[in-house]
Amino acid sequence: MMSLAPTLWPGVQIAGTSLAGGDSHMFEVEATKDGHEHRVIDRATDVYLKWLVAGGPYFTEVFKLVHSEGSIPFTTVRAEGVDPESGLPYFVFRFLTFGSAPKAHRNTQDLVNRTFDNETEKRHWMNVAAEALLVFGWAYNGLKAPHPSYTRVDLDGKIYILKDFGYTLNSK
Question: Does the reported pTM lie above 0.90?
């Protein structure tokens, strides 16, 4: 197991269990017909992730996870680092909010906050969002990253990478 640089989040480690079984999704990047916009979509379940806006001093980003029952807005922040074991650079997404997001920008004015019936439901959708963020990568390029652990997602103190969801680089 690789650990993050101590200056980032002490004690946080890369998750060792595969999430590819059971409730697995297979996301891919899709361009709109006009080619001006993209999304990360799982065609089998028609769940997709859409990047909406970024800004602020800490590079916060607003996303929307859309599924058959509605959508879930959320915000993330990115941090860059260098893996102490491999020496390779990476960046990691951390969730700031899940179920709500600022509505000040024109791309986010239509967002509706989402409440969850219980923590199990919220955790399910956060897992789906984490997987989609890994495929999203830096900017809709997660499957073409420089190395397999370049994009990471922190989910409750565990760090996930593409292989935790059954992906390899350039797999889609």
Answer: no
